[in-house]
Amino acid sequence: MSGQAKEAPPRRPPFGLSGEAWLRILAPTIIGLLVLGGWEWVVRVHDIPPYVLPGPVLIAETLVRDWTPLSASLLVTLKITALALLVAASLGLLLAVLFAQSRVVELSLFPYAVILQVTPIVAIAPLIIIWVNDITLSLLICAWIVAFFPILSNTTVGLNSTDHNLLDLFRLYRASRWQVLWRLRLPSAMPYFLSGLRISGGLALIGAIVAEFVAGTGGSASGLAYRILEAGYQLQIPRMFAALVLVSVTGIAIFLALSLVSHLLLRRWHESAMGHGERR
């Protein structure tokens, strides 16, 4: 009726983000700005020389000034990281499927995957670099070794954690082993695989950096680790910090990108990615 008051339309949150989303963004941002401000204040008040501890402003200026060589090295490190993560994800998934199909194969091979995981990459990287003539391939192998196990382990757990009632239902309808794997076990293991992938993204970067430290190399094909070593030898500490900032930002970007992929793949059907109001 005309005399009846109309309900006001619900107010849309600023930029389409909820209060919790704003809290997730603003809280760490404010903490980070306070830490950087305090760091800069300590450096200026105590007149700490830049070869001991440069301030955030000087690090930012160095990052802008030396962006060309640092960005070229960043691309080299990113290439090794991406290839290692791709190989780790592919082999990890394939081996996990193989383990899920045969208990004998899992018991026979899984201990060797554990050995790869617990062996320090710093200890075996020199041997890999000596045995493999190609530097890029040796760096890729080192990064793959570090990133491989979380994907294999998480995916294997996911495949083995399929609801037994659903497995019995598939067997009741005489589903083939391939149908059980493709329609039931792989979808059930998807959250586990994506969780392992998020962990391995950062580990692949760490493996690439460690391998670059050991390999050293030089020239235009050098990664960020070599730039850090080079800056340390030349006492260019602001440049060293600038390279470290790039490494940290890259690791954060990889984690956020993989988290976004996980959210997009799981948001419509899995509890871990659904909003609190959608959970039952």
From TrEMBL:
Coiled-coil region: none
Keyword Membrane part of the UniProt annotation: yes
BP term (GO), one: transmembrane transport
One GO location term (cellular component): plasma membrane
Key word Membrane present: yes
Membrane topology, record value: Multi-pass membrane protein
Subcellular locations according to the entry: Cell membrane
TM regions (residue ranges): 21-42, 80-100, 112-132, 138-159, 205-229, 241-266
Pfam families documented for this protein: BPD_transp_1 (PF00528)
Protein name: ABC transporter permease
